[in-house]
Amino acid sequence: MEDYLSVALPKGRLGEKVLQLFKKAGIADIDIEKAGRKLCIEDEAAKLRFILVKPYDSAVFVERGAADVGVCGYDVLAEQHSDVYELLDLGFGKCAMCVAAPKGFVDANAGPLKVATKYANAAEEYFSSKGRDIDVIKLNGSIEPAPMLGLSDVIFDIVETGSTLRENRLEVVEKAFDVSARFIANKASYNFRNKEIRTIADRLAKAAAEMQEQN
Amino acid sequence: MEIDIGVLSKSEQLALALRTLYAKKGYSCYRMSRFEELSLYTDNLDFLVSPDILTFTDRNGRLKALKPDVTLSIVKSRADDPTVLDRICYSESVFRVPNEADSFKEISQTGVECIGNVTEDDVAEVTCLACESLDIISKDNLLVVSDLDILNRLITAASENVDVRKKLLAFAGQKNVAAINKLAGSGEIPEIIGKGLSSLLLLSGENGEVLEDLRKICSGFSWGGLAEAFSATVNKVEEKLGSDSSKLRIDFSVTGDLKYYNGIVFRGFVKGIHTGVLTGGRYDGLMAKLGKKSKAIGFAVRTDILS
């Protein structure tokens, strides 16, 4: 058990892309289809254990040492302020954290701006840096209908292509920050398993750069 | 009075073992009140691990706080005599929001402070004592050391903008080289400084492994001699540690607020514990801010982490 380095991977598309990257970098070769419903998959030859977690929990697993390293979106790090090393920007899973509102919306500054979001901390910080008082409406999904239903004035959420916004008659008002997948490490693990983690980071960096060139 | 150690919890046993070690080394035990005037902390907010403070109004109307930190109380209470060395140890509870939590916790700490005429030998001795403290918890440990004078010079040279400096310090703590390169790429900080900072953060290893690279990184700057000074301090610690010196690592992602901390800073890790169990370093900046001429160095071990 001890020899294995554990990797927290977000379930879904992002996790699949990360596994492709590990394969391309020659670090591990995992067939996610064969894993079925298993949430813990091992590559015995590489001595790596992949733990499939919800994207939002990946940084928690790493910060708390349940995983030595992991991958998560920058949106999660910005929200949770996880005490982890952010070793690489993998350059994929790109989107942006944006403020979006119904078309034609103008902030009259008449009172606190009602902001519907999953990212309460990031929203507070962003609007506070602009000196705008807000009333955060914390939602756990389906943020887009909030302005239409009068629940909020604007939403603060990640935007990839903008199609969901358009379908809900919203438009981007401003971009708060860029988001992409990050390779992170637990600070204690980084020190105790320094050579292994640095080797993986170096190989991932090279493979990620090649992937970006190809795209 | 005989004490049956077995009745104590693991964290109490650790605190006792540490205090015994510190007493043997000539540190006198110090006991302080649980409460302080709130202004002591609000005036030095950046020195605290977290800005959250538990407050209450005393019966005389004074605004008080449950201590979120021990060092400030000790520094405030000691006489400022830069000609002698005052060695103090303590076991205290502090009340704050730890990094990984979102609510207040009572955190037990045992630590030491050296205040007054702090020489390079004293710095090496305190750093060794930090290593010995980690040994008491587990032999499988590492003390990761950094030099804030070097980091400070690079960050100060990067930008005059306080927000950019704050960002850079945060990126250093995260080893976020990509973000530093992005700032350099956008012209927000000079490219040469960005390169220096990135190279510094990629250093990680024993003194012998990183020294040459550290020299190279610092060599182009007027303050390049700081690399030698830091290396000399680390050599001194290594000599004192002898065969245990492989437990000492250099990594510039160990940071602290640059207004308060300077020179060597460190963080101790023990295998099996997900976070640092020991933090410390020199804090001459805090002394100066409080109007004191004395120099200071110290560290604290989180004893509650074992429970």
Compose a concise summary of this entry.
The complex is a heterodimer of chains A (215) and B (307). Chain A is α/β, with parallel strands linked by helices. Chain A has helices at residues 13-24, 32-35, 58-63, 74-80, 120-129, 145-148, 163-167, 187-192, 194-214; strands at 5-10, 40-43, 48-53, 69-73, 85-89, 95-102, 113-117, 134-138, 154-159, 170-179, 181-185.
Question: What's the CATH superfamily of the largest domain in chain A, by name?
Answer: Periplasmic binding protein-like II
Walk across the major sheet of chain A and give the strand order. 2-3-1-4-11-5
Mean pLDDT of chain B: 93
Distance between the termini of chain B: 26 Å
Protein structure class of chain B: alpha+beta
Number of helices of chain A: 9
- What gyration radius of chain B follows from the Cα positions, in whole Å? 20 Å
Provide the descriptors you would attach to this structure in a database record.
heterodimer, A: 215 residues, alpha/beta, D-Maltodextrin-Binding Protein, domain 2, 2 domains, six-stranded mixed sheet, five-stranded mixed sheet, 9 helices, 30% strand, elongated, B: 307 residues, alpha+beta, BirA Bifunctional Protein, domain 2, nine-stranded mixed sheet, three-stranded antiparallel sheet, 41% helix, 23% strand, globular
